[in-house]
Amino acid sequence: MSGARVILRVDGVSKKFGGVVALDNVSLGVEEGGIYGLIGPNGSGKTTLFNCITGVYKPDKGRVFFDGRDITGLQPHVIARLGVARTWQKVRPFRNIKVIDAVIAGGLLKTSSIGEARKIAEETLELVGVAREEWGKLGSEISLMEHKLVDLARAIATQPRLLLLDEIAAGLRPHEQEKLAEVIRRVWRERGLTIIVVEHVMKFVMSLSRKIFVLHEGRLIAEGAPEEIASNPKVIEAYLGIRPA
Fold first, then answer.
1. How many domains does the chain fold into?
2. Which of 37, 48, 80, 180 could disulfide-link 209, Cβ–Cβ 3.0 to 4.6 Å?
């Protein structure tokens, strides 16, 4: 992956909410075609960073660049059309909508043709492994794991180049987490996406990521390969509250 083009660059981004500093001068670069992890204790600023990248929040300071273009402060739908998609930390059940229709909604971001959007949705549901017999079910009739896969499919149906996954494994059993990790790897291989995973499940994010960024109290305190991060004294202190000897 070394020498690949930088597809996302965050340059000195800061964000406050009242007197609370959520992000403090965060800078990082993401090369095209990799899977990255973004970790840190609760309240470290991970979701806030995703929100600044995707236009939900405008940074107080700093800039965000996607594929060389300054996207700072653009509306979320504009950033999505440029090729940045995300899932959300909390599953938002579509109780009265069919699975296929929920994914068609993602496909309609870049086409006005229902037929074309349906074709995209069907291909994407097959990619993430949602069985055809589930496509006609309502959101109220499917499991949490299936909701996770449908959320993932809906994001992929927007045909992104950069995919941000916000705690997608939360609430899943270990065997479901393993299945989801395999799905994400398959999506990465077959679609050639750049993926950033925010996650508290360390085994999940460490097994997926080639490089990991660590936030603590709004600051980027470490970045590196999973094995480097696992033994980094700053990271151990941030998570455990103890300074290694």
1. 2
2. 37
